[in-house]
Amino acid sequence: MADSECPNGLWDEHLGTAIDVHEFKDCSGTNKCAYCGMLLDIITHTKPSWLADESGTRDLSIAIKPRERWVFNTNLSLPNSKGSGSIRLLEDGQQVDSVQLFKPITDVQKLSLISWDRYEKLLFGESLNIAPSSDSAIAFERASHWLKDCADNHSCYNDAQRSFLPSRMLQIEESGTSSSVQLVERSAVSASPYAALSYCWGKDTSGVLITTKANYSSHLKGIPVASLPKTVQDAITVCRRLGIYLLWVDALCIVQDDGEDWRREAEKMIDVYFNSFLTISANEPNSCKLGFLGPQRFGSSEWQRSVPVQVPPGLGGPASHLLFRDSQMERPKLFSLDSRGWCLQESVMPRRRLVFDGCELSWNCMEKMFCECGHLDEEACGIYPLLRTGRHADEEDDDEELSTYAKLHLEWMDFVEQYSQRALTKSSDKLIAISGVVRLFQTRFANTKSKETEKDKQILGLLRNLVVKDSFMPPGTSGGYFSGLWGDCFIPNLTWTVDHTQLEKSGRMEHKKIGESLAPSWSWASIDGPVTFRHMEISIGAWRERMNPELTLDAVVQEVGCEPIVTDKLGGNATGSSFIRISGSLVPVELAVLHPGDAAGAPQYFWYRRMAGQGDGPIPCRRQCFARTARLQSWRVFLDVERLPTIEKGSPLVDCWSHPRHDGSNGCGCSFNSETEYACLRLMTYKANDGYRTNNVPTIVLFLVLKLIPGSTQTYQRIGLGLWNKDEGVQEAPTNGGDYDMFVEASFQEATII
After folding, report:
1. Shared-domain flag, residues 696 and 664
2. Which stretches make up the Heterokaryon incompatibility domain (predicted)?
3. Which of 135-149, 313-327, 398-412, 587-601 has the lowest mean pLDDT?
4. Which of 120, 572, 599, 674 is the most exposed place for a label (fewest CB within 10 A)?
5. How many CA atoms lie within 13 A of 114 on its CB side?
6. How many other C-beta atoms are found inside a 10 Å radius of the C-beta of residue 411?
C-alpha cells in the first residue's frame, strides 16, 4: 500500500472525530497502515493498557485534531505551528488525556524560514526542544541566531538608530571576567549598539541600588555587579553572551532623586527603547531582586518529552520521534510585566525584543516572531502592527473593508483598552506613560491620511468621521491629540465606557475617578480602571458581515480647550481648565440606581450584554442605573463610577424605573423633578439597513450622561455613557405605532463639559 494512504479511510473520513482504538489497531495489523501504526505508537506511550484491553467493557477511543494551517493577523499571513495536531483520549466518551504533538527539529534556521510547501504537509507543528534553562548554552545559541538573522537580513535597525545614544549607560567589560560595570555619559563613548532593559521593579524596592545625586560620582567610577539587583545582573550576562557592551537601565541611568533629571530623561525614554539595538524584556519575575535567567517551565520533562513514534511522509515525516506536550499546560495569559502601565510602550517601541518569561525564550522584531516551541501566537504577531512601521505596515490589502487610516483609529481604541487594564504607581502618569506611543500614532496618521482612497468614502456608514473631507471639528483641532482623544475621531473617542468584565479579572473592587486636574471627565484617562470601546467592535463586525449599518454623528464639537500633545514634548496631562464646547440634542433626565438584589429582575438587553462582553450572560456590574426623561420613560446607562443605590430594595419604585408603562402613567404616583442636575447628550447613531433588521443590527443611539456643575447653567461633567436601542427599549411599544425616542423632546443646545 502507499505510505500516504489509510485503506480504511480512518484519516480521510473521520479526522477530528472519536474512533475506537481497536479500529486503528486492526487497520495497522491487517493492512500495515503507517498512519494507524503511528497512532498505536502514541497510545503505547500514553495509555498502554488500552491496547491489551479486549474486554469490551470500556469504550476506548481516540480523536485527532489536525493543526490549524495558518495564522492570520492584520499584516501577516504565516504558517502556523502553534496549532499543532493534538490527540484526545476518551474513555466512555469522557476525555481522560490530551497531548499536543510536534515534530522535533534542531535547526534554528529551518524554524525561521517560511516554507509554504513544508507547512502544508505537516499534520503536526515543528518545534525545537525547549531549553531547560534560559542561561544555558543552547538558549544563548538560539538568541544569537535570532539577533544575527535580524541584523543581517531585516530592516529593523537603520543608520539613524545607530547614531543615537542615551545620555547615560552601563559599560560592560568585554572580557566577561570583570566584577564591576561603569556608569558612562554619552560624551565618553563612541556610537555603539546598546541594549535596553524592560523589567518590573517590584513592590519591595528596599535595598535596591539606584543612581542618586549622592552616589552619582561613585557610579561613574564603577559599580560592583554583585551590588546590583539580580535582574540587572542577568541582563549584564545576556549582553556579554550576545556581544553587546552598553546597557541602559532606568534605575541606574536616570538620577532618581533629581526631579529635573528624571523629567528630562523620562522624555527621552521613548527614544531609548525605539533606538535600542536590542531590548531585553524580563516578563517575569515580578521583582528585580529575583532575576530572570534560570529554569524554564516549558523545558521541563513535565511539559515536553520525546517519544519514539514512526511518522510517515504523508504526515510530515519521515521522523522517528515526536514531542509530546501536555495540552493543559499553557503559558499565563498575563505576565507580571504586562500588568504595568509604563511597560506597555516598552513592548511597542523597540524594533527588537528578546523575551524571557520563565516558560521559554522568544523573539519579536519588526519582521518576525518566534519562540523556542515554534509557534506563532496570533496575538503576538506584531503588537499593534499598523502602528509599528515595519516592512509590512504599509502594505494594503485590496480586499480589506477598512483603510489603514481607519484601522489605525481602531488600533488606538484597542490600545486604550489594553492600557487601561494596567496599573500605575502614580495616577499622574496616566497620559505621560504612553507619550511615546502617541508620537508613533501621530507619525502613522500623518503618513497614511494622504493615502485615503475612494474605498474609504464607501464606509461612511461605519467610520464617517475618519474619512470625509469636511471635518466636524473646529479649525485647527482636526488631527490633534487631546487628553487621550484624537481630533479626527473625537466623537467616537468620547464613547468609551467602563469595562466591568475586565475589572473583575483584575481583582480590583471598583473603578475610581482620578483627580480632575489630571484629565477632564470626558477623557478615558480620568478613570482608574479598565475601559472599552466594544460598541465599535460589534458594529465593525456587522459591517464586515455585510449588514451595512449607517452611522451619523449627532453632535458638533465647537471648541476643545486643552493643548494637544506635539511630537517634541512629553505630557498630555490636561489641567482643570480643560473643556469641550459641544452642540447637540440635550435632554434633562433623572437617575436611579437599583439595589443589587433588585437588579436581577431588571431586563437584560442584548446590546448591553454585548457591550459588557458577556454574550448571553448577565452584565457583571453590581448595580443597574437608569435615566428617565420627563415622560417617565427609562433607559439603561453605564456609570463611569458605580454609585450606591438610590432606591430601597423591594420598593415599588423599582418596577416604575425598570419596567415603565408605555403611556407614562406608572401608577406609583412619582413625577419628574424639573430641577434635576442630570442630562443626556446625543452623540452618534447607527441606523440599521432595513433588509437586515433580523440580524441584531437595530437602530442604536449612543449618548453621554452628564451632571451639571453646581452654580452653572450649561457646564457639565461626564458621569457615564448610555445606549438607546429602538428594538429593545425598556418601555413597551406604543399603541399608536410611534417611537418612544429618548430625545424626541430634546432641544439642540450648546454645552460645556469639563
Report:
1. yes
2. 194-346
3. 398-412
4. 674
5. 13
6. 18
Mean pLDDT over 401-422 rounds to 81
Residue type, 642: E
| pLDDT at 69 > cutoff 90 | no
The pLDDT value given to residue 99: 81
User: Distance between CA atoms of 485 and 428, rounded to whole angstroms?
Assistant: 17
Domain co-membership, 308 together with 374: no
Calpha distance 705→685 (Å, rounded): 16
* Same domain flag for 118 and 176: no
Q: Is 257 inside a domain boundary?
A: yes
As for how many domains the chain has, the answer is 3
Min mean pLDDT across 27-41, 91-105, 568-582, 656-670 is at 568-582
Q: At what angle do helices 435-449 and 259-274 cross, to 10 degrees?
A: 40
pLDDT value at position 565?
Answer: 43
392 falls within a domain: no
The residue assigned the cell 446607562 is 637
Stretch 133-142: mean pLDDT, rounded?
A: 96
By the 8 A CB rule, do 627 and 723 touch?
A: no
Whether residue 152 sits in one domain with residue 292: yes
Q: Which residues contact 334 (CB under 8 A, 6 or more apart)?
A: none
- 345 and 313 assigned to the same domain: no
Higher pLDDT, 584 or 433: 584
> Which residues, in sequence order, are bridge partners of residue 196?
248, 279
Element (H, E) at 493: helix 490-494
Asked if residue 398 belongs to a domain, the reply is no
Round to whole Å and give the CA distance between 277 and 78. 26
Containing structural domain, residue 311:
10-135+304-326
Amino acid at 76: L
User: Which has the higher per-residue pLDDT, 577 or 483?
Assistant: 483
Strand intervals (E) in 467-602: 481-482, 485-486, 497-498, 512-513, 527-528, 531-532, 550-553, 556-560, 580-593
Same structural domain, 283 and 430 = no
Query: Does residue 650 form part of some domain?
Result: yes
Residues 70 and 213 in one domain: no
Give SS3 for 385: coil
